[in-house]
Amino acid sequence: MGIFLDGIWQAFYLLVTLDPEVLRITLLSLQISGSATLISMLLGISSGAAVALAEFPGKRVVISLINTGMGLPPVVVGLFVTMFLWRNGPFGFLEILYTPVAMVIAQAVIAVPIVTGITIAAMQNLPPNLRLQILSLGATRIQMVWILMKEARLPLLAAVMAGFGGVISEVGASIMVGGNIKGFTRVLTTATVMETGKGNFELAIALGIILLLLAFLITGVLTIIQQREKRR
Amino acid sequence: MTGPVTPLIELSGVTVHRGGVRVLDVSSLAVAAGETLGLVGPNGSGKTSLLLTLATLLGTTTGTISFRGAPVATRRDRLAYRRRCAFVFQEPLLFSGSVADNVASGLRMRGMGRAEIARRVDETLHRLRIDHLRGRAAQKLSGGEAQRTSLARAFATAPDLIFLDEPFSSLDANARESLVADLAGTLRETGATAVIITHDAQEALALTDRIAVMERGRIVADGPADDMFNNPVSEFMASFAGMETVLVGRVASTRGGAAVVDVSGHAIETAVAAEHGSAVALCIRPENVSLSVGPARAGARSSVRNSFPARVVDVYRKGVFFKVRLDCGFPLVSHVTADSLERLRLAPGRQVAASFKATAVHVIRK
Amino acid sequence: MDCNRKITAFLIVAMALLAGSWGASPAAAQKVKSVILATTTSTQDTGLLDVLIPIFEKKTGFMVKTIAVGSGQAMAMGRKGEADVLLVHSPDDEKAFMKAGFGARRRLVMHNDFIIVGPAADPAKIKGTKKSADALKKIAKSESLFVSRGDNSGTHAKEKNLWKAAAVKAEGQKWYQQTGLGMGQTLAVAAEKKGYTLADRGTYLALKKKLGLDILVEGDAKLLNIYHVIELIGKNFPKVNVAGGTAFADFMVAKETQKIIKTFGVEKFGSPLFFPDAGKRVESLGK
């Protein structure tokens, strides 16, 4: 309990004094996970909408694969991305292993199925005739998809939040493909793991608390948008 | 509107299969410009499939759809055709945003200018008497308001053709009545052609010029609305037209050129000729069945009057009438006034005499 | 519709911020040639590298990517050419590594020593035992809890050697538990469970205050923890940054660096965490 209180105190102290190292780690976390979320949003929402709206054989199999993908263990993703990005791996020529770019890729791989899966559920939850109603108004295919997405925007926002929550808190893949390099690929989660390993539990707890605050802040903003919408 | 004039829309040889089952099989159907066609039929008879097919919202297995004589075949054709049509579903299916946003949605899809959109939205809101709802959030309207908005959204694009799938069935009686009247007025004023699915005889009478009856995916009867109501050619249409008693029997003999039909061992006299031994359905309007106390006197006073001893099964109110269900060895329904109810002391179990004229029996040859 | 505008605005702002941050981030420094240093967690956990690497980077212009893993994994990376230089402390494995022809040069950098720590109550009565092998035998005999790293690190390798020397088959015994964790966490587990463990002195000193574990055995020549820097052979893997690896290895044994190593930790812990050994012979250590 003492350690926990010390941790809270230290988190407070680090935040108030704008500790440059903590600030840098926090911003990097935000930057990497934000980029990964953005990518997963673009890929996940478009592919989720495509899967939800298209009729094709094996659709159920595809959906259940995506749903399985929603629970991809980050460590496994990290392992695969690392193997692909090794100098002597298929994408070694990119020379991006142990860089923030590699972390964005790994996190996007984790988040895309999450966003896709929730998008599919959101689109399938719309009234079944809504699609026909939109087409009957003379919509082109693109106009139809756009309107459906607008109608599903609240659950889609939830999809993005889930994706962000999944990657900002993820550590296994980040530490594997990023390497936890000080000032370069060290983010809140990897720093927390390292400080725990060192036995600096107060600092680890402090970093954990900062991570929680960050996640709370971002999803809080999105939730406020979502809920204000709902009341209208 | 008939004859050599090209119909506004025409189906030919259309079949639709879903999950290996044929749900629609319409060899031909044409709707003339300005006409209002009602589609009636039991649940699952393919009415909605036909309506969606007409609106090119359902993939067909075979057949063609033509609009103003030209086939609607390619995706481009369908888009152009859909932009001449509108569809109103049973549920309002409004988009988020205001009522005005909803009414404008079809116009926006067509890339119309702001000023023109504003003008058309104003006009349509006014026509459907929902000017006051303009700025309201569409998701917070009452059922009647929402369906009015849905209709306004459909009419805003000035469609040549409008499809309505039981648009009023989820509304209460008041909202329905005023909306039916406004829809009838709007159809008349705009001259739009309409195809409407309805389960309500009043609605059908108020709105349609012509009625097509569907059963098991086919059109089994098609004709002017008045004919269909007065001389229904199918059992479904008969009950739709208010003939609550439908009895199936066989022609047992002929008396004076008119058929006498055996229904579960009881002879019912009719006023029309029918082939001896053929199967027929007898349809009787409840208002044509009169009740009295005392013994039944079949054929005593008039050779064209059917009279049977009957036991009252139950009685319940239906509008200004009371509906009395009777058991005469075959089921029979009668409508009586409150006055008669009291005078005859009608209650379940009471023995009465039920009688109806032979001319009140509508015969459908099967 | 203005709700959509709000969401769109939020997205645009988020995208702009992200794009801006990438422009200004250290990722932009990617043009600098980097050196991948595969090393053990103990060098990172003590903070030594945090002191040395900025100096190296400033001096040479290389950017060092420190991947802190166990010695075993560090050498595995070396075998695959996924690292440019290794800083490890698992001499037997290192010799095998050199023998297999993966390394170009292996130079002694520094040492500190391992210690056997445990609860003050010392149930196996090993305090003051001179030989590590005797201490381990006593632990085995009394079946007192021993917490092992079990993570294939240099420390783990050392520990396995010590058990071998003591002729005790510890693995699989009920009193022998493997954490699979780093040194700091393993120490914490040992403290929590009141068990014995083998630790490097640096990590122990850094955490001493929080642990409540005492040094029970120290000073045995077998307990030396020796760090070597290994350069890789470039011709095996054309992508290996040989120049960078060599520069780092040279840096580690350079006089100024050795001086920093000598004083590192004195201020904080009262005694140095590492002893610089560049140029010495392994056999001369600890004497």
Structure description:
The complex is a heterotrimer of chains A (232), B (366) and C (287). Chain A has one domain: MetI-like (MetI-like fold, Orthogonal Bundle). Helices cover 78% and strands 0% of the residues of chain A. Chain A is built from 11 helices and no strands. The relative contact order of chain B is 0.11. In chain B, helix 3 crosses helix 4. Chain B is α+β, with helices and mostly antiparallel strands. In chain C, strand 5, helix 7 and strand 6 form a beta-alpha-beta unit. Chain C is globular, with a radius of gyration of 22 Å. Chain C starts with a helix and ends in an 11-residue tail after the last strand. Chains in contact: A-B, A-C. Chains A and C meet through helix 2, helix 10 and helix 11 of A and helix 1, helix 2, strand 2, helix 8 and helix 9 of C.
Give the SSE layout.
The complex is a heterotrimer of chains A (232), B (366) and C (287).
Chain A: H1 2-16, H2 20-53, H3 59-69, H4 74-85, H5 100-125, H6 130-136, H7 141-151, H8 153-168, H9 172-178, H10 188-198, H11 201-231
Helix pairs in contact in A: 1-11, 2-5, 2-8, 3-5, 4-5, 4-9, 5-8, 5-9, 6-7, 8-11, 10-11
Chain B: E1 9-18, E2 21-31, E3 36-40, H1 47-54, E4 62-67, E5 70-71, H2 75-82, E6 85-88, H3 99-109, H4 114-127, H5 143-155, E7 161-165, H6 173-190, E8 193-197, H7 201-207, E9 210-215, E10 218-224, H8 225-230, H9 235-240, E11 245-255, E12 258-263, E13 266-269, E14 279-284, E15 290-292, E16 305-318, E17 321-327, E18 331-336, H10 338-343, E19 351-357, E20 361-365
Parallel strand pairs in B: 3-8, 3-9, 6-7, 7-8
Antiparallel strand pairs in B: 1-2, 1-4, 4-5, 9-10, 11-12, 11-14, 12-13, 14-20, 15-19, 16-17, 16-19, 17-18
Helix pairs in contact in B: 3-4, 3-5, 4-5, 5-6
Chain C: H1 2-24, E1 34-40, H2 41-45, H3 48-60, E2 63-69, H4 71-79, E3 85-88, H5 91-99, E4 103-118, H6 132-142, E5 146-148, H7 154-166, E6 176-178, H8 183-193, E7 196-200, H9 201-211, E8 214-217, E9 224-232, H10 242-253, H11 255-263, H12 266-269, E10 275-276
Parallel strand pairs in C: 1-2, 1-3, 5-6, 5-7
Antiparallel strand pairs in C: 3-9, 4-7, 4-8, 4-9, 4-10
